[in-house]
TrEMBL record:
This is Peroxisomal membrane protein 2. The gene is PXMP2. The keyword Transcription regulation does not apply. The keyword Aminoacyl-tRNA synthetase does not apply. Its main location: membrane.
Length: 194
C-alpha cells in the first residue's frame, strides 16, 4: 500500500476515535447512568486537581515535575462517590419537583440549585476533603470560617449563568457531564483556596 493511502486511513481512524468514544459513552450512559456519571466525575475532578497543581507550581516558579498524587486521588474519590451520584439524583429530583412546563420553572429550578444545593454541596465538599486529608474538626472549622463564604460567593457568580444553561437547556442525561466540564475550572479555584 502507498504511504499516502496508509496515512489517509490512519487519519480517518483518528477522526472516528471521538465519534466511537462518544458512541461508547452514550451506550454506557444508557446502561449504567449513575456509574458512568460517577466515573466521569471522578476522572474530570482528578484532572482538575492535576491542572491546579501544575498551575500552582508554575505560579510559584517551582521546577519540580512531581505532583502530589494524593490530591487527584482525593478529588477522584470525591467525584466518584459524591459529585457524580449526588448530581445525578439531584437533577432527576429537580425535574420531578419542578417539571419543565411548570410556571417559572427555569427560575424556580435555578433558585433551588443556587440557594439550597450549592451551599449544601460546598459544605459537603469542605467536609469530605477535610476527612480525606485526615484533618481534624478544628482544621475544618478554620477552613470553613476563612473559605466557605468567599467560595460560595464565587460559586454564585461563576455557576449561576452556567447552571441556568445547564438546568434549562442541557438534556437531563448530559447535565452532570456539562457541570463536570465546567468544574475543571471551578475545582482549580477551590484547590487554590487550600
Amino acid at each position: 500500500m502507498a504511504p499516502a493511502a496508509s496515512r489517509l486511513r490512519s487519519e480517518a481512524a483518528l477522526g472516528s476515535l471521538p465519534r466511537r468514544a462518544l458512541t461508547q459513552y452514550l451506550l454506557l450512559l444508557r446502561l449504567y447512568p449513575v456509574l458512568t456519571k460517577a466515573a466521569s466525575s471522578g476522572a474530570l475532578l482528578a484532572l482538575g486537581n492535576v491542572l491546579a497543581q501544575m498551575i500552582e507550581k508554575k505560579r510559584k516558579k517551582e521546577d519540580s515535575q512531581n505532583l502530589d498524587v494524593s490530591g487527584p486521588l482525593r478529588y477522584a474519590v470525591y467525584g466518584f462517590f459524591i459529585t457524580g451520584p449526588l448530581s445525578h439524583y439531584f437533577y432527576l429530583l429537580m425535574d420531578h419537583w419542578i417539571p419543565p412546563g411548570a410556571p417559572w420553572a427555569g427560575i424556580r429550578r435555578l433558585l433551588l440549585d443556587r440557594l439550597v444545593f450549592a451551599p449544601a454541596f460546598l459544605l459537603l465538599f469542605f467536609l469530605v476533603m477535610n476527612l480525606l486529608e485526615g484533618k481534624d474538626a478544628e482544621t475544618l472549622a478554620t477552613k470553613m470560617r476563612s473559605g466557605f463564604w468567599p467560595a460560595l460567593r464565587m460559586n454564585w457568580r461563576v455557576w449561576t449563568p452556567l447552571q441556568f444553561v445547564n438546568i434549562n437547556y442541557v438534556p437531563l442525561q448530559f447535565r452532570v457531564l456539562f457541570a463536570n466540564l465546567a468544574a475543571l475550572v471551578w475545582y482549580i479555584y477551590l484547590a487554590s483556596l487550600g
